[in-house]
Amino acid sequence: MASEFETSAWIVMVMGLYAAAAGVGELRVPGFWASMVDDLARSPAARFLTGLICMVVGGALYLVGSWDTAGWMVVLIKVIGGWMVLEGALILALGDWVMGLARRLMTAAPRLWALLSLLLGLGLIAATIIRF
Predict the structure, then answer these.
(1) Which of 36, 45, 33, 47 is nearest to 96 (CA)?
(2) How far apart are CA 27 and CA 5, in angstroms?
(3) How far apart are CA 56 and CA 58, in angstroms?
(4) Measuring CA to CA, which of 34, 76, 98, 102 is 20 to 30 A from 108?
């Protein structure tokens, strides 16, 4: 079985790959993220499933590792997991409002968000590689 150290590092690596790939996707096809938000805004079923998946994955991430042996990666995973649970609950309860906020954020500075996502992803990947 993988140690808590290895598990948290692998989760951070996957998060980094996700963030970097999402950033590259938006830079390659500007408006991609905004169109996803529009799709979610139009589909209550997709919004419901998105909220549910956010809550389930966030809850699972939050349960990784214990606070007493927490390195910064475990803390990061717990914070992201908790945020995902909150985000999922908000999408389920106030989906129209959350999608309106997301639409405003995605149209305000899409290139900046994509670059931030790419840089964050590369930073997480680098931190994981250094840690291994």
Answers:
(1) 47
(2) 33
(3) 5
(4) 76
**pTM to 2 decimal places:** 0.87
Token pair, residue 101, equals: 């906020």
User: In the prediction, which pLDDT does 70 show?
Assistant: 64
Q: Which of 104, 95, 94, 114 is nearest to 26 (CA)?
A: 114
Query: Are the beta carbons of 35 and 104 closer than 8 angstroms?
Result: no
The pLDDT score that the predictor gives to residue 12 is 95
Angstrom CA distances, 132 to 19, 33, 50, 129, stand at 20, 32, 33, 5
In the structure encoding, which two tokens stand for residue 69, read together?
A: 């042996």
Specify the pLDDT at position 2.
59
- Residue pair 100/40 in contact by the 8 Å Cβ criterion: no
Residue-by-residue DSSP string for 91-102: HHHHHHHHHHHH
